[in-house]
Amino acid sequence: MNYSEKLKAPLLKPRIAGALDLINPHLYSVEERIRGQARAFDPALEGYIAYVCDTKGKRLRPALALLSGGATGGITPGHIDLAVILELIHVATLVHDDIIDGAELRRAQPTANARWGSAISVLLGDCLFAHALKLASNFHNSEISRRIADAATEVCSGEILQTQRRFDLSLSIPDYLRIIEMKTAALFAAASELGAFLSEASPELITGMKTFGCRLGTAYQIYDDLVDIAGEEQDAGKTLGTDLAKGKLTLPILLLLQNSGSSEQARLHGLILAGKPEAARALAEEARASGVLRKCAGTATRLVREGTDQLDLLPSNRHREALRSIADYLLGHLEAFQSGPN
After folding, report:
1. CB-based burial of residue 119 (10 Å sphere; 0-12 exposed, 13-18 middle, 19+ buried)?
2. Could you tell me the CA-to-CA distances from 170 to 47, 62, 175, 249 in Å, in that order?
3. Which of 156, 173, 195, 337 is most buried when burial is the number of CB atoms within 10 A of its CB?
4. Into how many domains does the chain fold?
5. How far apart are CA 290 and CA 272, in angstroms?
6. Rounded to the nearest 10 degrees, how much is the dihedral formed by the CA atoms of 51, 240, 301, 326?
7. What is the pLDDT along the chain (342 residues), one digit of tens a residue?
8. How far apart are CA 117 and CA 2, in angstroms?
């Protein structure tokens, strides 16, 4: 069984289905609110906004915001607002990512960039960012809107750093981890932290939930980087292989370089700097054969477990166990890479 077949294992779905069923009415409200945001724009823009918002994403950030709120006190209208805002920011980053990467598919449909080109897509992402921050200003407590803005800034800063370090052979593993903590984990952390903050949880719980989200988000990005190398586009629902072709040095490639001798490194450097699809495919094949995918999955697994340790701070309730189920769902997907070559 190859990696893609393992990722489709039916036993993984029940791990997250129960967690989402617990908050299903709230997620439905979030979904309806997200779709309704198109009406807040000029009629000439509604079609563009509706297109990028009306997709069946995982909605992990909204789920974390809602479950964190439920685990620390209860889900309120403020949690719904938070979930909508964070997902709009996430959608905006995806629109911009697809321009940068030249991706053709996102969630099994053509990207905004593929449909309308980069000029409209850049401005579309900008509109979504601005609209999300406008919605955040409606919170009575300005600390919430400030933390949302901080998270959005971190995401954009991480994307800039990643773009800046493309084809940079001096990129270290700590550099990589810092970048993905910013560009991906920041919104996971904000969802978990502010979910608890809105419930007026103790500072200890709020900090613990922020750590949980950060570790989970970092592990999720490592998993996503593994899929980019070893997954199948029809299963992922998006264009794969863009990281290597665009010079993004992700953890599998960094470990491949780290585990190679000087002459081998020189050859791999040549493949990286070539920036061609065939060179990227050769690098991906070497990463799969070398055993580094298993090591990457081990790193991500450790991060998830460090995050779930924070859940022990929460009172025992169904929402806490649902958060644990989401973490277990990610662990289940990482298992697909744990049995690779040594």
Report:
1. exposed
2. 43, 36, 10, 10
3. 195
4. 1
5. 17
6. 20
7. 454 444 444 445 666 888 889 999 999 999 999 999 999 999 999 999 999 988 767 789 999 999 999 999 999 999 999 999 999 999 999 999 999 888 888 877 899 999 999 999 999 999 999 999 999 999 999 999 999 999 999 999 999 999 999 999 999 999 999 999 999 999 999 999 999 999 999 999 999 999 999 999 999 999 999 998 887 655 555 566 678 888 999 999 999 999 999 999 999 999 999 988 888 889 889 998 998 999 999 999 999 999 999 999 999 999 999 999 999 999 999 998 886 555
8. 35
**How far apart are the C-alpha atoms of 302 and 298, rounded to whole Å?**
6
Q: Which two tokens stand for residue 70?
A: 């439920």
* 342 belongs to a structural domain: no
DSSP 64-98: HHHHHHHHHT---HHHHHHHHHHHHHHHHHHHHHH
Q: How far apart are CA 322 and CA 287, in angstroms?
A: 34
Report the alpha-carbon distance of residue 331 to residue 106 in Å, rounded.
23
326: CATH: 1.10.600.10
Residue 79 corresponds to which tokens in the numbers above? Answer: 């949690």
DSSP 315: P
Count of helix runs (H) and strand runs (E) in the chain: 18, 2
Instruction: Give me the domain span that covers residue 34.
Output: 3-337
25 inside domain: yes
Any domain includes 18 = yes
The answer to whether the CB of 154 falls within 8 A of the CB of 42 is: no
Residue 317's Cβ-count burial label (10 Å; 0-12, 13-18, 19+) is: exposed
Which two three-digit tokens encode residue 270?
A: 């040549």
pTM comes to: 0.92
Angle at 341 between CA 336 and CA 342, to 5 degrees: 115
3 with 231: CB under 8 angstroms?
yes
Q: Name the CA radius of gyration of the chain, rounded.
A: 20
| Separation between Cα atoms, residue 47 and residue 38, nearest integer Å | 7
- Asked whether residue 203 is domain-assigned, the answer is yes
Tell me which residue has tokens 């993984």. Answer: 12
d(CA 45, CA 47): 6
